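ok new one. same drill as before - structure tokens go in, u give me an amino acid for every spot. 584 of them this time. try not to just spam alanines like last time pls lmao
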């Protein structure tokens, strides 16, 4: 009696998958072994090691012999033999082990790496593993997809039987949304968390900002037609942005602000787009003229954008021309968060901090950076530490400012503990308490009803302006009477304009919803971490040390949330000091 899955015997299926894996390995060019693949962006070498390890693990489970010496789910990227010898040894051991399963044993519970399952299903799982990894290697190295619709269709019942428990420990990613025109191959790949279009999605394409003239004219017309509310009683800024102030600022946005000058400023730096995990990612990539520059991700938050970093790009990437030590140079990668700016539209739900961190780690790998640092403020201070959690082998250090979650206390603090606070800690606790009592209304709205908010932000430029400029007032140094006393009007309006022209006010707000409805809570990290706590920040070191390996901490009396715009020299100096203090 044969062992069947659909209309094909499982043994035939396994044989075809083994042949496919071997043929694909034969087709890999000598220079292609370090190329990234769809399998967690592992290199081709790592995927082959993983695939071979899986086949040997199946063989060992069936025969009761010892398994592979290396963990097949954590491949080192170093092969102990020639690639063809590796794959031949693995598939021959697997085929021989399965050949020992008798016809009467096909439904018997068989001990396998995933747990006991019927032999026919285990054989199908073994075939699925080989076939999918053959596809990974093929598309990464420019070969034609070896996975036929017929084989994919036969493997689909196997996948639906085994994939869900395996997702729990990372063997397969969450399923992707099906496409309207998917064939059997695309259906199987998406179910296993792989994009059928991975080969084209991994392209890095040059990008320039070019807002259509009609959009610029539309902004001016909408500003001119604004229906203004009456002023409420009370002191200025007590109940929100004063009407008189916003009228004057909106008039400047309409008649005095030069968007094209800001667009040219942004376009003076190399910009690119790529697709990672199905999401369009826009980024600036500014390489230092210094040959040994440290790669560094700069990650903005809300209501920021890549505009935040324009004043620090020069000093960080080219310190020599700014009269500083060239040894402290950085290659800068400055991405727009998913759903922000030109990293839009957001591809779907689930883009929380941990997933964004994984995507940015992939971006750095795609750009050829083996070791890199990460710096972030506000939500960037969520993502940068999470990079240290999802990619610790490659992240040399994490620097944050405007840090909150994972750097502040949660819940009530006993009086006895408060009694031990330093004056700086007491002041930061008071700032946090004031924020929770009076300043987090925006947070609650964006974390619960971002779609409802999005209608006003998408339709009214004055609404978008007020929603953001309030934060430039509240989150900058207290000694400033107006937002533009801390950050120039043009910098503020360049940031707001980026939200307006890309229509991302709503999708950016959605990041708060993802944060509060996901499970990306900080877990302990061993990656060296530095903190710059500016005057309006609320991070407290004793609490930050509970989840982070703090090796550098600076308290500043001035500055605030938008440090790269308000106090760029202080931020640049602290970034340099931190990365100079840790091993590269």
């Amino acid at each position: 009696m044969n062992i069947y899955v659909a209309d094909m015997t499982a043994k035939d299926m396994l044989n075809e998958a083994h042949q496919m894996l071997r043929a694909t390995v034969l087709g890999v060019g000598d220079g292609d072994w370090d190329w990234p693949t769809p399998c967690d962006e592992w290199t081709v070498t790592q995927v082959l090691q993983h695939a071979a390890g899986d086949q040997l693990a199946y063989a060992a489970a069936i025969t009761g012999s010892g398994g592979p010496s290396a963990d097949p789910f954590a491949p080192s990227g170093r092969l102990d033999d020639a690639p063809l010898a590796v794959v031949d040894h693995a598939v021959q051991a697997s085929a021989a082990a399965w050949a020992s399963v008798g016809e009467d044993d096909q439904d018997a519970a068989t001990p396998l790496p995933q747990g006991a399952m019927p032999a026919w299903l285990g054989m199908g799982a073994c075939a699925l593993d080989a076939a999918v990894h053959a596809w990974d290697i093929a598309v990464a190295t420019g070969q034609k997809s070896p996975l036929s619709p017929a084989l994919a269709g036969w493997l689909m019942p196997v996948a639906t039987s085994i994939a869900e428990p395996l997702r729990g420990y990372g063997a397969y990613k969450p399923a992707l949304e099906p496409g309207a025109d998917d064939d059997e191959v695309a259906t199987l790949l998406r179910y296993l968390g792989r994009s059928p279009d991975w080969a084209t999605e991994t392209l890095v394409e040059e990008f320039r900002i070019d807002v259509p003239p009609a959009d610029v004219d539309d902004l001016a017309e909408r500003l001119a037609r604004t229906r203004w509310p009456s002023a409420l009683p009370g002191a200025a800024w007590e109940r929100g942005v004063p009407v008189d102030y916003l009228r004057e600022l909106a008039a400047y946005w309409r008649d005095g602000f030069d968007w094209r000058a800001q667009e040219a400023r942004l376009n003076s730096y190399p910009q690119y787009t790529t697709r990672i995990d199905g999401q369009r990612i826009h980024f600036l990539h500014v390489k230092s003229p210094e040959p040994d520059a440290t790669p560094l991700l700069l990650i903005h938050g809300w209501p920021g954008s890549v505009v935040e970093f324009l004043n620090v790009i020069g000093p960080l990437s080219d310190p020599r021309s700014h009269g500083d030590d060239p040894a402290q140079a950085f290659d800068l990668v400055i991405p727009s968060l998913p759903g922000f700016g030109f990293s839009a539209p957001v591809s779907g739900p689930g883009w929380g901090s941990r997933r964004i961190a994984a995507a940015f780690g992939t971006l750095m790998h795609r750009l050829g950076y083996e070791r890199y640092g990460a710096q972030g403020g506000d939500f960037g201070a969520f993502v940068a530490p999470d990079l240290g959690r999802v990619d610790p082998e490659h992240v040399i250090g994490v620097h944050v400012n405007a840090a909150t979650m994972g750097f502040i206390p949660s819940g009530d603090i006993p009086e006895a503990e408060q009694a031990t606070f330093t004056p700086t800690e007491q002041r930061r606790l008071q700032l946090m308490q004031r924020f929770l009592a009076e300043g987090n209304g925006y947070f609650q709205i964006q974390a619960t009803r971002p779609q409802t908010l999005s209608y006003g932000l998408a339709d009214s430029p004055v609404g978008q302006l007020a929603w953001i400029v309030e934060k430039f007032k509240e989150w900058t140094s207290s000694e400033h009477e107006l937002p533009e006393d801390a950050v120039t009007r043009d910098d503020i309006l360049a940031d707001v304009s980026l939200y307006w022209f890309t229509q991302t006010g709503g999708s950016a707000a959605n990041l708060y919803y993802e944060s509060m409805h996901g499970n990306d809570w900080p877990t302990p990290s061993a990656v060296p971490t530095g903190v710059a706590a500016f005057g309006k920040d609320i991070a407290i070191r004793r609490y930050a040390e509970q989840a982070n390996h703090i090796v550098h901490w600076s308290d500043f009396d001035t500055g605030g949330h938008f440090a790269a715009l308000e106090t760029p020299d202080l931020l640049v100096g602290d970034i340099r000091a931190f990365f100079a203090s840790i091993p590269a």
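Confidence is low (pLDDT under 50) at residues 1-7, 68-73. and btw DSSP finds 23 helices and 13 strands in the chain.
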